[in-house]
């Protein structure tokens, strides 16, 4: 399996503040001036003083945010959606990137759960990754061959639930289920579902390509959803078919 790590862009922010101070000499008091009319009063060079102070302020207030405080890092997973009969590769072809049919991002630190040949053949699960700190926080992809286009949104979701008991339970107890249709820059149609329940939350993206239906799932318990919502939305939006 080939996983190419592609850290999200790290931004370094530099904040610069410039303060210009103009020094105004004190008023000349006639009583304090020397009696001799030939004496010249020496005043500081105001322009030089202002520039020096400004430069010192810039150096003192420059702040750099270390990379460790920037966005999360992700790896790109290349999925082949191979049938159960071809489980394990294509006759020794180890370049999954070249034969990939879909991709999605994996958060740094998440682990892969190896999918069995039986599981692949029964419910079409092709890949799965999970958070080792909470294994029920996960993303996975299923596929089904022989489909040229998507059925109506409600029918698609109901059919997905037939082979996924956890999804059935989540839908049955959900506070809300929303769906929408979107298109990518090539005009390919994606169905996007969001299921919000009292105990868990799920984001699902479904599309058809190459006579196959691909369904990408992101699931998390309610507590993890509240904590990791930004990361979970990112991996949900990263899914797309390729090739």
Automatic annotation (TrEMBL):
Gene Ontology biological process terms from the UniProt entry: photosynthesis
GO MF assignments: calcium ion binding
GO CC field: extrinsic component of membrane; photosystem II oxygen evolving complex
Gene3D superfamilies documented for this protein: Mog1/PsbP, alpha/beta/alpha sandwich
A Pfam cross-reference name: PsbP
Domain PsbP C-terminal positions: 100-240
UniProt superkingdom: Eukaryota
PANTHER family reported in the protein's UniProt record: PTHR31407, THYLAKOID LUMENAL 19 KDA PROTEIN, CHLOROPLASTIC
Name of this protein: PsbP C-terminal domain-containing protein
Organism: Tagetes erecta
């Amino acid at each position: 399996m080939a996983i190419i790590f592609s850290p999200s862009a790290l931004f370094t922010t530099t904040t610069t503040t410039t303060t210009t101070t103009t020094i105004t000499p004190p008023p000349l008091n006639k009583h304090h001036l020397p009696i001799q009319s030939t004496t010249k009063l020496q005043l500081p060079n105001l322009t030089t003083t202002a520039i020096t102070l400004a430069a010192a302020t810039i150096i003192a207030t420059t702040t750099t945010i270390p990379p460790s405080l920037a966005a999360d890092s992700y790896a790109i997973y290349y999925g082949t959606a191979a049938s159960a009969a071809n489980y394990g590769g294509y006759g020794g072809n180890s370049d999954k990137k070249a034969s990939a049919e879909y991709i999605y991002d994996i958060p740094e630190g998440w682990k892969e759960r190896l999918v069995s040949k039986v599981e692949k053949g029964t419910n079409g699960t092709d890949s799965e990754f999970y958070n080792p700190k909470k294994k029920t926080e996960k993303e996975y992809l299923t596929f089904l061959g022989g489909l040229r286009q998507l059925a109506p949104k409600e029918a698609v979701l109901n059919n997905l639930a037939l082979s996924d008991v956890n999804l059935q339970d989540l839908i049955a107890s959900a506070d809300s289920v929303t769906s929408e249709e979107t298109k990518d820059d090539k005009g390919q149609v994606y169905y996007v579902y969001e299921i919000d329940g009292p105990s868990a939350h799920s984001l699902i993206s479904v599309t058809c390509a190459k006579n196959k239906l691909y369904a990408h799932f992101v699931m998390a318990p309610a507590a993890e959803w509240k904590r990791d919502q930004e990361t979970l939305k990112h991996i949900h939006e990263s899914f797309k078919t390729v090739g």
